[in-house]
Amino acid sequence: xxxxxxxxxxxxxxxxxxxxxxxxxxxxxxxxxxxxxxxxxxxxxxxxxxxxxxxxxxxxxxxxxxxxxxxxxxxxxxxxxxxxxxxxxxxxxxxxxxxxxxxxxxxxxxxxxxxxxxxxxxxxxxxxxxxxxxxxxxxxxxxxxxxxxxxxxxxxxxxxxxxxxxxxxxxxxxxxxxxxxxxxxxxxxxxxxxxxxxxxxxxxxxxxxxxxxxxxxxxxxxxxxxxxxxxxxxxxxxxxxxxxxxxxxxxxxxxxxxxxxx
Length: 262
Prior knowledge:
Blueprint: H1 2-14, H2 19-33, H3 35-47, E1 50-55, E2 61-66, H4 69-82, H5 93-111, H6 130-133, E3 142-143, E4 149-150, H7 152-158, E5 163-164, E6 167-170, E7 174-178, E8 182-183, H8 187-197, E9 213-216, E10 231-234, H9 236-243, E11 248-251, E12 257-260
Antiparallel strand pairs: 1-2, 3-4, 5-8, 6-7, 9-10, 11-12
Helix pairs in contact: 2-3, 4-5
């Protein structure tokens, strides 16, 4: 009798509700009748979780995956918090979510809490010639390994705030010297930048200090210095706009910042 009453109720609701709303109610009813079946279904979905990354020949990385509702809620909550649209932000929703995922991964890598790999904390590696960093005509592209190659401008953006290892070679295969890794922006300097800039210095951005990278107004490979007077915090979106987008960023004598389009 109870099943017949439930069936009759579904027929009535189906005429009034959207399919998604009706499906959620059906799941609730199923759980009420057989909670163990719901637990088993959740376990099956958890076992099917998957995330894949594939790199194409033209330098695009594709992400594809699926997972249970609980994991999806965690991921969505974290990405939504970082994907908020700011003043002058022209990114689509999908672009903001992708950038938010990259920001989360960068923050976790920078925190140094991941298991070590080969005796060192995990980090991305960019192989780039000095002539490329200096922007000489005819210089080679930089190499990210699995993900492909990037332009010299992209390499300069990444090297604005990075650990640099000097490797000198004689030709393509004879190793002459491997220099000591040097931090271009010290933790103390980063704290000072955060205290001074309060976040991304690009006008009307509002990204928090933890979401920002340290930017050299004159790149160190071109003779710029690593000091508070010659650097500023900038979010990844506007960091790309300055390097690849050719915007110019100026630190004014009164402490304000001005950004000019190309």
